[in-house]
Write a structure and sequence with these properties.
- It is built from 2 helices and no strands.
- It is an all-alpha fold and 76 residues long.
- It has a domain of 46 residues.
Length: 76
Amino acid sequence: MTEPEPLPWFTSRGTGGHLLVFLWTLLAWLLVMFYQSNLRAHLILLEYEEPIDTLEDVLFRAKKIWIGEASAAPFV
C-alpha cells in the first residue's frame, strides 16, 4: 500500500493548529447556540397586558375597541 501525498495547504507541524481550529469551531458553535436560544425566547415570549376593568382603563390605553352590533356605541 502506498502512502498518500501530503496536502500542500495542510502541514502537520504539531497540535497547535488543530487546537486553534477546534477553539474557533467551539466559539462559532457557542455563538450560534446563544443567538438561536435568544431568538426562540424572543419569539415565544407572550406580551402581558393588564385586563380592561373600567372605562378609565379604556381611555388610558387609547385603543379602538369594537363593541359589537347590539351596542349603541360601536367604537370607544
